[in-house]
Amino acid sequence: MSRLYMKQKVFSWRDRFTIKDENETDRYSVEGELISIGKKLHVYDNNEQEVAFVQQKVLTLLPRFFVFVNGTQVAEIVKEFTILKPKYRIEGLDWEVQGDILGHDYQITENGREIVRIHKVWLAWGDTFELDIADAADEVMALAVVLAIDCVMDASETAAASSAAN
Questions:
Q1: Separation in Å, CA 78 to CA 30, 75, 126, 166
Q2: Which domains are delineated in the chain?
Q3: Residue environment code for 27-43, b if the CB has 16+ CB neighbours within 10 A, otherwise e
Q4: Rounded to two decimals, what is the model's pTM?
């Protein structure tokens, strides 16, 4: 099992943050593209090699993000239309999202086996998320899927705020 901490900076012009382990050692870095059509996040390992890429599908009714690992598309995260409780579908993997997504306290499972548990750490400056990944072999994939779900949530909140302003 591995534990990662994802802390996003509060006042950042573009997404740029580091993923650390429980010993506060840098494990991955995440960088967004400042100028792009749709949101794009690159995930790099400590050797500055890109290990995952998250890309927003533009011009869709509901937010959708593609997840690439080592250059291959492995999943598409889709926000389903619901009234009260947000629901996400992970296409391409046999993974399911369960729990309190809005409260950032949820897990992703595959046929009942937990892949990753996500928990928001409160009382922290900026958004800090703790990821408990059951199998180290799933680490990059789980991290990329969690980032994509976070992007979908951000895109949904932005769209809702924009609609409310009009």
A1: 21, 10, 25, 25
A2: 2-159 (2.40.160.200)
A3: bbebebeeeeebbbbbb
A4: 0.84
